[in-house]
């Protein structure tokens, strides 16, 4: 005999086994036939079954027919709306929930932060957090981790850091979120420091953490820490087979200038995806081996991988670094003729850079004028760099004045045009540009270099004497310069003799 308990068990089996939606609908029909729809448990089970299958219109019909939806039902509807990217709908449901005078629990609040981030409603997100504090849920790790994720996506890294510091308990999700947030903000030193804190707190490293940390090691040029992470990867078989970690290792070694290590990682990987090939192609390009990039690109296609826009950008950039102009033209023309893409801004910027580097400035300018969309600063910047390299005033002025409109506060564009004028002895032109910079309050950004010693990053700026060892550093530098001058003098005397 069919009972409400029997139908409830069938519906929960549908949910757990992800059965086809037709099964849930058949059970729904039987529930109506036997007159059990008034059962609140069955209503909630139906709502969950439709929601899990992604049929939100059916789920909403069930929900709207419920005379008194329970807390679980409200949470299901809010969660499933967010999961299906219906963020505004989720917030509307929550508004109805509050009108009913109901009190949210720790399951209601986390998806609301995702809904606020998805709807780009920062004000609403902070209002929800005010509710969290009022209800005393700020100590709940699920809720506080969700608010941290919201801050990273919408509120900013400063606020996210404050939220993370105030958290009483931090699980691996919270640590991974803040570490990834530092990485996205380019704060690699903070990211590595946070990673050290994570290890000090006794948290285990997982496959979600490692790619972010390897990215930070590459960004800071911290080869020692990168190799340390690589050692941990080798010890865990599961990590060694992880394609995302493998890709991150290749990228880290490339950024640290270790092409051989990057090639070794690539050669040992058994599971390659398009990102793997693209990363290795880019790696060769950064190290000036455009021929190898092109060879690997052809091998990738032979292995059945079709390039995407990012892969084609990597190939063009690699050819630009090596001056392979004819090959670059062929790849650029193939973007639309062979692969069916419309060349993007990045493709144009790479091609302009390639042509500009090797003096084909007229062709580069002509290419920009054929673009179907407005050229961005990256495109004009590539042309200006080429003009500065080849001291071309006419085209350099065209590129520079475009950049003055696009990036009026970027001092490097003004300095580049000054350099071109100066190379031709055009003092009036230099004076005009410097006067314009003064009016805008622009100054030349000082050059910076850095080195990591025992985990500490030491930065050096042009003309900066703030380093505690600056006296010894400058004395050592003077000795090196004198030794180099003596060596050069001895060599010249030997050649003369």
Question: In words, what does this structure look like?
Answer:
- The structure is a single chain.
- The chain is mainly alpha-helical.
- The chain contains 28 helices and 2 strands.
- The protein has a two-stranded antiparallel ribbon.
- The longest helix has 27 residues, at 470-496.
- It starts with a helix and ends with a helix.
Tally of DSSP helical segments: 28
Question: Radius of gyration over alpha carbons?
Answer: 30 Å
What's the average pLDDT?
87
Largest sheet data: 2 strands, antiparallel
Portion in beta strands: under 5%
Helix/strand-derived category reads mainly alpha
> How much helix is in the residues?
over 70%
Strand numbers in spatial order across the main sheet: 1-2
Low-confidence stretches: none
What would the principal axes of the Cα set say about the shape?
elongated
The sequence of SSEs as H and E is HHHHHHHHHHHHHHHHHHHHHHHHHHHEEH
Give the CA-CA distance, first to last residue: 113 Å
Find the count of extended strands (DSSP E, 2+ residues): 2
Blueprint (SSEs and pairs):
Blueprint: H1 4-17, H2 21-33, H3 40-52, H4 56-64, H5 71-83, H6 87-99, H7 109-118, H8 122-135, H9 141-155, H10 157-166, H11 172-184, H12 188-200, H13 209-220, H14 223-235, H15 237-240, H16 243-255, H17 259-268, H18 274-286, H19 290-302, H20 309-322, H21 325-337, H22 345-357, H23 361-369, H24 377-390, H25 393-406, H26 411-423, H27 427-440, E1 448-453, E2 456-461, H28 470-496
Antiparallel strand pairs: 1-2
Helix pairs in contact: 1-2, 1-3, 2-3, 3-4, 3-5, 4-5, 5-6, 5-7, 6-7, 7-8, 7-9, 8-9, 9-10, 9-11, 10-11, 11-12, 11-13, 12-13, 13-14, 13-16, 14-16, 16-17, 16-18, 17-18, 18-19, 18-20, 19-20, 20-21, 20-22, 21-22, 22-23, 22-24, 23-24, 24-25, 24-26, 25-26, 26-27
């Amino acid at each position: 005999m069919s009972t409400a308990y029997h139908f409830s068990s069938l519906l929960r089996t549908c949910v757990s086994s992800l059965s086809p939606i037709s099964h849930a609908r058949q059970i729904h029909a039987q529930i109506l036939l036997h007159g059990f729809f008034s059962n609140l448990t069955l209503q909630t089970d139906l709502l969950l079954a439709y929601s899990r299958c992604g049929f939100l219109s059916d789920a909403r019909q069930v929900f709207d027919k419920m005379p008194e939806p329970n807390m679980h039902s409200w949470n299901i509807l809010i969660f499933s709306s967010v999961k299906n990217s219906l963020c505004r709908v989720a917030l509307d449901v929550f508004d109805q929930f509050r009108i009913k005078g109901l009190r949210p629990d720790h399951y209601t609040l986390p998806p609301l932060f995702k809904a606020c981030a998805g709807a780009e409603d920062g004000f609403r997100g902070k209002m929800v957090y005010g509710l969290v504090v009022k209800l005393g849920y700020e100590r709940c790790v699920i809720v506080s981790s969700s608010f941290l994720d919201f801050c990273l996506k919408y509120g900013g890294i400063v606020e996210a850091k404050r939220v993370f510091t105030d958290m009483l308990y931090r699980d691996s999700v919270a640590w991974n979120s803040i570490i990834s947030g530092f990485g996205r903000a380019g704060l690699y030193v903070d990211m590595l420091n946070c990673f050290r804190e994570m290890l000090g707190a006794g948290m285990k490293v997982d496959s979600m953490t490692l790619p972010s940390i390897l990215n930070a090691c590459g960004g800071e040029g911290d080869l020692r820490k990168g190799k340390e992470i690589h050692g941990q990867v080798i010890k865990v078989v599961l990590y060694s087979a992880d394609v995302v970690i493998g890709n991150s290792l290749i990228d880290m070694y490339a950024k640290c200038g270790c092409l051989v290590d990057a090639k070794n990682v690539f050669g040992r990987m058994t599971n390659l995806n398009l990102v793997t090939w693209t990363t290795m192609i880019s790696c060769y390009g950064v190290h000036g081996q455009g021929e190898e990039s092109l060879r690997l690109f052809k091998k990738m296609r032979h292995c059945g991988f079709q390039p995407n826009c990012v892969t084609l950008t990597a190939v063009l950039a690699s050819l630009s670094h090596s001056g392979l102009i004819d090959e670059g033209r062929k790849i650029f023309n193939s973007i639309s003729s062979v692969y069916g893409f419309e060349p993007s801004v990045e493709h144009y910027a790479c091609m302009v850079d390639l042509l500009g580097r090797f003096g084909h400035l007229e062709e580069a300018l002509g290419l920009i004028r054929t673009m179907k969309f407005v050229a961005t600063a990256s495109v004009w910047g590539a042309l200006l760099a080429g003009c500065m390299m080849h001291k071309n005033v006419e085209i350099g002025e065209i590129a520079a004045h475009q950049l003055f409109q696009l990036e009026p506060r970027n001092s490097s564009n003004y300095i580049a045009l000054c350099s071109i004028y100066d190379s031709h002895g055009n003092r009036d032109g230099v004076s005009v540009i410097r006067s314009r910079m003064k009016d805008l309050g622009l100054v030349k950004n000082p050059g910076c270099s850095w080195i990591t010693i025992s985990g500490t990053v030491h930065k050096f700026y042009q003309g900066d004497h703030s380093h505690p060892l600056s006296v010894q550093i400058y004395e050592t530098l003077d000795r090196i310069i004198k030794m180099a001058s003596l060596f050069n003098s001895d060599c010249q005397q030997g050649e003369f003799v």
